[in-house]
Design a protein that fits this description.
The complex is a heterodimer of chains A (270) and B (206). Chain A is mainly alpha-helical. Chain A is built from eleven helices and no strands. In chain B, helix 4 packs antiparallel against helix 5. Classes of the chains: A mainly alpha (270), B mainly alpha (206). At the A-B interface, helix 3, helix 5, helix 6 and helix 11 of A face helix 4, helix 5 and helix 6 of B.
Chain lengths: 270, 206
């Protein structure tokens, strides 16, 4: 096939790169998707090098160490950073998955169950523990026993939020497996079912502080991470792939544009 | 509740304040418990109108709905903290003070969901492909400005004095004024949007 001549070169290709990016028909979806890496950068930064909340500290830490940890001042600044981006959590935990869920041929009940579970999980599993850590560091002079109680409360809410994540992982897993449109590969649905299982493994954090079942336990935490981290990376890559491969005629804005009287079909080679 | 309790008050002062204003504060807490979600319908109406905006998908509107739920829950948790403190005003002042701190932290700091809502709405409006857009374009700029003005409040847990403190000019006055103005302006905007609904020249193809 011969190359199009310069005279009929598509307009898009002569536009500066920046503008072409802005003209992308799926820009809304890409914007939501790219919040994911941004959010996880901040999330990782806050929970690991800034606060050392993760990997989780021992549930059997001596009282004096708990007080020292919870009253360090950089903790407050880091937690503020999280509170600031916590709304992006809604974009990541709901919006990013919705990019594929919306296109799946399954009952809306499954999709809305996913949405509800993720919202509840974001509040009790992230915003609540962060605020409790923030509270403990806010004022000095509180009784160490009370601070230790908030240390437990925050870690248990963070690592032990079970059912509110069972719900979305089950819903997502079912959606992927039952989806007639095959937006995501079926094997990923079975892998997602294992995220449900990790929540069951984590149940033991409420029962004991001892290894391997405590909130920093090899089974209750590290084994789960082994299952969770690769899954999280894989599913976001798969979502990106699905988004990239979404045919143009599925896009609302393209369909509207084509229905307008002023619309003229662009030659096929553009 | 107004003016806000200073974060510099000692636990004893806080406990004394709670005992002194017990009935009035309890009344406010119960009313807030009942009316805590009273702003949700206006945000839900915005979400419904966002569903009419034509982007490539409805992802901004769905994310907006998720963020509404997160924001409303944070407010209810704040209300419960004050309520629990008032439930037994003779409790150890340290515990009253802790609940008071937590209540204020949950009331002032969690601006994240609201910022996400503002940015989702702004994004949806900027990318609206309709020849006659659902929302006027200035509403998008207005939402971006609202998001920016809400940012300082997130840092209310870092300090007990100055403009960033929960009773400060940025975290308290600016944040709540911004919210009040925002709700007022969006109310009027929605009236216009709803009255125009149905008169569109172009209908979305099924």
């Amino acid at each position: 096939m011969s190359e199009p001549t310069a005279a009929i070169e598509p307009i898009a290709s002569v536009q500066p790169k920046k503008i072409r990016w802005l003209k992308n028909k799926k820009l809304d979806q890409y914007l939501v998707f790219w919040v994911v890496p941004v959010f996880f950068q901040v999330f990782g930064l806050v929970f690991v090098p800034l606060t050392w909340m993760m990997p989780p500290m021992s549930p059997d830490k001596p009282l004096a160490d708990i007080v020292t940890f919870m009253q360090t001042s950089p903790l407050e600044l880091a937690l503020s950073l999280y509170i600031l981006v916590s709304g992006l959590g809604a974009v990541v935990t709901v919006g990013a998955y919705w990019l594929v869920l919306a296109r799946m041929a399954v009952s809306p009940a499954i999709k809305y169950a996913f949405l509800a579970g993720q919202v509840i999980g974001s509040v009790v599993g992230a915003l609540l523990p962060v605020s409790l850590f923030g509270l403990a560091g806010f004022r000095s002079g509180y009784d160490p026993e009370t601070l230790a109680m908030f240390y437990d409360f925050a870690y248990l809410a963070y690592n032990g939020s079970l059912g509110c994540f069972c719900l979305p992982w089950l819903a997502l897993s079912l959606a992927i497996i039952l989806d007639k449109n095959r937006i995501l590969p079926k094997w990923l649905g079975y892998y997602t079912a294992w995220q449900y299982v990790t929540e069951l493994f984590a149940a033991s954090v409420w029962l004991t502080t001892a290894q391997p079942f405590g909130w920093n336990g090899y089974l209750a935490f590290y084994f789960n991470m082994l299952l969770y981290v690769p899954w999280q990376i894989i599913i976001f890559f798969q979502i990106y792939k699905a988004l990239k491969n979404q045919p143009e005629d599925e896009l609302d804005n393209v369909r509207l544009e084509r229905s307008l009287p002023s619309y003229q079909a662009v030659p096929a080679y553009s | 509740m107004w003016p806000p309790l200073s974060p510099q008050m000692t636990p004893e002062d806080v406990a004394a304040f709670y005992r002194e204003h017990h009935s009035a504060m309890l009344g406010v807490v119960v009313i807030c418990n009942i009316l805590g979600t009273v702003l949700v319908p206006i945000f839900a109406t915005i979400a419904v109108q966002m569903m009419r905006i034509v982007n490539s998908s409805k992802v901004f509107a769905v994310t907006y709905i998720a963020a509404i739920a997160m924001g409303a829950t944070a407010f209810i948790i704040a209300d419960y903290c004050w309520g629990v403190a008032l439930f037994r005003p003779d409790r150890n002042p340290q515990l009253i003070s802790l609940l008071n701190d937590l209540g204020w932290i949950f009331f002032i700091a969690p601006v994240g969901p609201l910022i996400a809502m503002n940015l989702c709405l702004a994004g949806a409006i900027y990318l609206d492909a309709r020849p006659d857009p659902v929302f006027p374009r200035w509403v998008a700029h207005f939402n971006v400005v609202t998001a920016v003005l809400s940012v300082p409040a997130a840092f209310a847990i870092t300090t007990k004095t100055g403009p960033l403190a929960w009773d400060g000019s940025l975290s308290f006055t600016l944040r709540l004024t911004t919210l009040a103005v925002y709700v007022g302006v969006m109310f009027i905007v929605l009236l216009g949007v709803i009255s125009r609904q149905g008169d569109e020249a172009v209908e979305m193809p099924a």
